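Item description
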Amino acid sequence: MNIIKAGYQGILLPDLNIEFDCSGIPDRHTFISHAHADHMPRSRQSHVFCTPNTYKLMQKRGYKGTAEILDFGEALETDCARITLCPAGHILGSAMFFVESDAGSVLYTGDYRTPPSPVSEGFILPGRPVDHLVTEATFALPIYKWDSHEELAGEIQNFASACLEEGETPVFLAYSLGKAQEVMHMLAPLNHPVQIQEEGYTLCKVYEEAGFNLGPYEPYNQATCDRKILITTRRALNNGFAGRAQKKRVAYCSGWATGTVGFSPGSCDKLIPLSDHLDFFELIDLCERLNPEKIHITHTPDASVVQHYLDNLNIASRTLE
């Protein structure tokens, strides 16, 4: 099976005329796994295949191309392959793609999470043998091991409640798509007003239409933000977001909150390792369960660590560069 890297995120199966998370080349089947900016097609002329919620979110984020919508479990038949979409558990709409052909089967994960994000469609494997697993390994070091979503929700609720009780404004730093809505869903039981940065606010309706409770929320208003629960990005906070809040405390919600890279612990009050990717141990467990002929690893801090563990399981692997 010929599997090659194409650009920063993209993966190409040239013999099958299939590409994943690329910009879209005419006469090639281009599949988009989810609506994060680094996976969306760059070209406004692209024609892609994706899930309904991914297309809705891409449109909200400025995508002007066309899309053929495929539901989870639905298969697309081409001249040389059959491609089925499986829920990836990363964010709303995120999909894995299972490709079956005469040359063998490939599962392309895109970004994924198991156990799945509570504001996603879940996580489901194909249920048929996988010959080649193309997997991201963003947090593939043993220092990354996540608490359960229930424990993390408790941390988020406790932080917000403690701040409000002490007359402070709680600020959660989270990506505008996926993480922000997950934090809002976890805060919903508090029934306290939330204000979210405009970029994230425009995406929330898609989540509500999908049936997820985000609690009472409104767009950020500098004049009325004091004593509300605030959700924003690090960049916006650095540019004066919540500047009028008299007293505020900041919680950083990310897998990188483990404290290794991406954020200085001294610049916020609380680090909450809430990730929309699977942790190291979940990755190794998944690889062992699937036991494919070969694993193709992308986006990893140190591929040799993952490969060492896979070697011990007698699973062949390589890094896609």
